[in-house]
Amino acid sequence: MMKCIHSARTILALLIVALTVATGTATSLPARADTGETPAVVPIGEKSDEMKQADNEKHRKKIREENDRELKLREPLYPQQARSLAKRYKETAAIVARQGGNPRPLLDAASYFEKGLDNRVSVR
Fold first, then answer.
1. Straight-line distance from the first to the last Cα atom of the chain, in angstroms, rounded to the nearest whole number
2. CA torsion 25→27→30→34, rounded to 10°?
3. What are phi and psi of 42, to 5 degrees?
4. DSSP state for residue 114 in the 8-state scheme
5. How many Cβ atoms sit within 10 Å of the Cβ of residue 113?
């Protein structure tokens, strides 16, 4: 009896995977039809990919700022953690610079955490 149940589960799982793959393939075919020979025209009601990406970035930044603000309010050890992260990012940036890489993103991250210490919101 147990072998029958396991076989049925396996068949059901394989069927679900097959349907998911088939559905994904069928819905993405029109997207692949664009050969890139002619520039895409965006209908009036839709946004271009660049505009959508810019909106997504703004939305992500807003969410990050809200999460950071909540973390600063709730976490009593946030200043120590931010100082430590900034220090580690600076150390890593120095290593990257010695090896010939671009340390700018790491230095930006360090300044972000240092700036967060300056603008700490007080809980009242």
1. 64
2. -60
3. -90, 125
4. H
5. 21
Give pLDDT tens digits for 22-74. 776 655 555 545 555 555 555 565 667 788 888 888 899 899 888 888 888 88
Whether the full predicted model's pTM is greater than 0.85, yes or no, is no
CA distance 59 to 51: 12
DSSP state at residue 41: P
> Quick one: how far is CA 66 from the chain centroid?
15
Length of the chain: 124
For residue 88 the two structure tokens come to 């580690």
Extract the tokens encoding 95.
């290593």
CB atoms within 10 A of CB 94: 13
Joined tokens for residue 64: 């990050």
